[in-house]
Amino acid sequence: MKVNNREYRTVWMEGNVVFMIEQNLLPFEFSIYEARTCLNTCHAIRTMIIRGAGAIGAAAGFAMAQAFLEAPRKEFTDHIERARKQIESTRPTARNLFYAVEKVYDAGRKSVAAAVEKAREIADADANDSRMIGQYGNDLIRDGSRIETHCNAGWLAFVDYGTALSPIYFAHETGKNVFVYVDETRPRSQGARLTAWELNQAGIPHTIIPDNSGAFLMSEGRVDIMITGADRIAANGDVANKIGTLEKAVVAREFGVPFYIAAPTSTFDRSCRSGSDIEIEERDENEVLYQSGPVRSGRIEEILVASPGSGALNIAFDVTPAKYITGIITEKGIIRPDENDIRALFDDK
Ligand code: MRU
Question: Rounded to an integer, what distance in angstroms lies between the CA atom of residue 11 and that of residue 58?
Answer without folding.
Answer: 7
